[in-house]
Structure formats: C-alpha cells, structure tokens
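Anyone up for a design puzzle?
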C-alpha cells in the first residue's frame, strides 16, 4: 500500500526513514524506480513507492542508509586501548589511597596530641595594656613639658621637641572623653596629625589621668578590609567557583595557624613537630578543597610532602652545621615575654617549613596539571614522553619559583640587611651574622626543595597520568 507524507503536496516526496532492516542481500541493485500514478490522477510530483515487501519482478525503491549506531562504550571508537586502562587506574587510585590515608591520619593524630588541651592561653609576663581606639583632633609641636609645666625662656639648643596631641577616645572605659598626650619626636617616632585614627594602650589606671594611656599605633582595619575585599573579588572573578574554593581554603589555613600552630608553640610543644603537623593539615585541606579529590591532586600532595621532608632535613642539618641558635631579636623578645625558654632553633626550622609550603603548592600543582594536559592533548604519549615534556615545562617554572622565594625572604629581611651593612665589616662577616645566616639557610633549603619538587612531582604525575583512562583526565 502506498503511503503519502503529509507535506508531499508542498515539498514533493519526503522519504521516511525507518529502523526496519533491509531484506536486500548484498550486491542487489539499488537503482530507484517510480511507479506510474493511478489513471485520471494528476499530481505535480509522484511520491516514491514505499512497499514493505519486495514484489516479484519489481525493483525496490532506494532505501536510506541506516544511521550509524553508537559503538559499545568499551572502545569509544579509539584505538588507544582506553578500555583496559580503567583497571590500572583503579589500582593506581588504591595505591594513592594507601599512601595518603596513613599520612592524613598521622596529621590528625599529631594535631590532637600536640594541641594544648586544658591549658590556659599563654600570656606575656609584661603588661601589654588594653587597646583603646581614639581620634586625634589637634597637634602642637613644642618643648617637652610635663602636665602643668610652663616653658620659661628659650629651650636649650640640644633639646628635642615633643608632639602634643589632643585626642578623643571613641571606645573603652573613657569613650567620648578627651585627653592630651605628649611624646618626644624621634627618627623612629611615627608622625601623627589631626584626623588620624590611632590605637591607645590603657594600663587600667585612672581614666582622667593621661599617664594611663599611651599611643601605640594607627588604626588600619578599614584599608585592610578594603584590600582583602578587592583581593577576594579579583580571585572570584577570575577563578569563579575554583577561586571561591581557594578563598575558603585560605581561610582554613589561617585558622590552622591561629588556633593550632601558635597556641601549641606558645604552650611549649616542639615548634618543628607542630609546624609539620600544621603544614600537613594545610596541605591536605588547601589542595583537596581547591582542586578536588582526584588522582591529579593526590600526586601534587605526594610531591609536596616529599619536598617538605627534604627541606626539613636540609634545614636541620645545615642549621646545626652553621651553629644557628635561632636567637634573633624577635625570638629573644618572644622568650622575654613568655618568661620561659623555647626551642629557638626548632622555631627557625618551623618557619622554614611553613614558609616554603606556599611556593611548593604552586610548583607541584602546576607540574601535575601540565602533565595531565599533555596526556589529554595526546593520549598516545607514554610516561617517558610525558615526563620529558613536563620536565621541560618545569625548568622554566623552577627559575621563577626560586626567584620568588629568594625575593620574599630578602624583602622580609631588608631592615636586617640594611642594619648589618652599616657595620662596615666585610661581606663575609655580614653573611655570617646570625640574622643573615638564618635567611640564607631558609632561602637555600627552600630553593633545593622547590628544585627537587619538579622532577619528583613530574615523574609521579607521568606514571599515573599515562595509566588514566582518557575520560578521567
């Protein structure tokens, strides 16, 4: 029976595509043959005859070629052997789990053991005072006079001037009250002016007595919050959800430092062990939260861990060989405020480990991502080709990473470098000084760890990425 398409009158014959298999044997002629229209019927264009079964002696109308059906999912139409790679990837993932889960458990156990449970927070033996906010309403430069004194005659030629500031307290026990404070003008004295918002130190005495207060610093909350907001906005605009995850990881890293590392060291625990546990927690949280729970991230974690161990070992060996005590000015002031001893050299090593962690994360994540992208671009590459290509990328990256670490430490130690250079002694004596030698050990040990992180992470990534199925890349 002939069937006519609805739109045949408008567009001519439209052949229907059916899924019925063709009963034509291979080699049968497929030349079309039109059937004559019925007698008396006049149509612009006759439809194509669509018999369901071939009639004897007649040739069938051309059948449409069947649409290609999807191949079974095992092959995916490739010849790279992705099907057999899945079991290997599963074994690799299990191996990574067996390597990383004990390390994660050890990190958690270390944090639990080292945390100062039940101990009171450490306090300075010297009274620090209560911070009080105030606003300077006016300043006068003149002779240094106590409250109630009057200058008679000309001041001595060598007399140093003082800055008298009129202030209004904006919070604390004297909120809304005014007071006048005088402080000598020294080269190290900050320059205050009317309208400045400052922080006072209140010793708990009479609020009406100016001697109960002392100007200690400027208020910086607003500009710092604005800068933090600008930073967060830039990260989210560029990184979107990945940037938001990175900000959350950064916040958790600060929480680890503030609520575990600092209290544990102040409570007298080994600074190096505390830094190792804290760095491990930061590493796991930051990397997995930012980059996801994948084999790629696990490789970056392993590369970071191996490099951190190397940095810690080198720092311990060469700080002992160079007889570094860790007793610089900041550490000496800390020990005086605590009222008891602290492992100053361990504190130095803890600073090396935590300081190098951020740069190591950057190197290991970049190397791992580079190897994965190379495999994704060319799935036929073996692990040797991936390692060679990734190492070439790493050579370009390692130079800038080492320079970043050196400049970071040099910038932090710039006042020490300037102060030491004033001594007038030779360069060897300057470099051998305690403060400078500490920075040298930090810089060089961290740089060796960064350099080692490139081949270590690259070979791990190449071995694992070469066994990953393409759809998992």
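Challenge accepted. My sequence:
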């Amino acid at each position: 029976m002939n069937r006519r398409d609805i739109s045949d009158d408008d567009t001519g014959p439209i052949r229907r595509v059916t899924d019925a298999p063709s009963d034509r044997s291979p080699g049968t002629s497929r030349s079309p043959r039109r059937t004559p229209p019925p007698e008396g019927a006049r149509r612009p264009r006759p439809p194509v005859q669509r018999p369901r079964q071939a009639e004897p002696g007649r040739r069938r109308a051309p059948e449409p070629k069947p649409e290609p059906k999807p191949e079974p999912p095992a092959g995916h139409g490739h010849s790279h052997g992705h099907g057999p790679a899945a079991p290997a990837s599963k074994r690799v993932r299990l191996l990574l789990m067996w390597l990383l889960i004990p390390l994660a458990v050890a990190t958690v156990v270390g944090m639990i053991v080292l945390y100062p449970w039940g101990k009171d927070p450490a306090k300075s033996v010297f009274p620090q005072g209560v911070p009080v906010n105030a606003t300077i309403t006016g300043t006068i430069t003149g002779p240094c006079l106590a409250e109630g004194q009057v200058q008679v005659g000309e001041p001595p030629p060598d007399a140093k001037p003082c800055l008298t500031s009129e202030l209004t307290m904006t919070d604390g026990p004297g909120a809304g009250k005014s007071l006048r404070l005088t402080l000598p003008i020294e080269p190290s004295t900050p320059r205050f002016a009317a309208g400045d918002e400052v922080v006072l130190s209140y010793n708990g005495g009479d609020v009406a007595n100016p001697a109960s207060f002392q100007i200690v610093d400027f208020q910086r909350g607003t500009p710092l919050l604005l800068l933090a907001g600008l930073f967060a906005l830039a990260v989210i605009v560029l990184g979107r959800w990945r940037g938001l995850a990175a900000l959350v990881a950064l916040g958790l890293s600060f929480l680890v430092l503030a609520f575990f590392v600092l209290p544990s060291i102040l409570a007298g625990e080994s600074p190096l062990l505390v830094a190792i546990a804290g760095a491990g927690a930061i590493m796991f949280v930051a990397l997995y939260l930012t980059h996801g729970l994948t084999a790629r991230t696990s490789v970056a974690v392993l590369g970071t861990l191996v490099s951190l161990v190397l940095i810690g070992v080198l720092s311990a060996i060469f700080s002992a060989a160079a007889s570094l005590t860790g007793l610089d000015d900041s550490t000496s002031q800390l020990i005086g405020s605590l009222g008891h001893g602290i492992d100053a050299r361990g504190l130095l090593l803890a600073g090396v480990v935590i300081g190098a962690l951020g740069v190591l994360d950057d190197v290991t994540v970049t190397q791992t991502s580079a190897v994965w992208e190379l495999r994704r671009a060319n799935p036929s590459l073996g692990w040797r080709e991936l390692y060679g290509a990734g190492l070439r990328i790493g050579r370009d990256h390692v130079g800038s990473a080492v320079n970043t670490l050196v400049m970071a430490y040099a910038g932090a130690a710039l006042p020490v470098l300037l102060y030491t250079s004033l001594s007038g002694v030779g360069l060897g004596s300057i470099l051998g000084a305690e403060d400078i030698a500490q920075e040298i050990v930090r810089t060089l040990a961290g740089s060796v760890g960064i350099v080692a992180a490139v081949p270590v992470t690259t070979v791990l990534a190449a071995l694992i990425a070469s066994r990953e199925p393409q759809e998992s890349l």
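A detail worth pointing out: Residues 1-33, 53-57, 64-88 have pLDDT under 50 and may be disordered.
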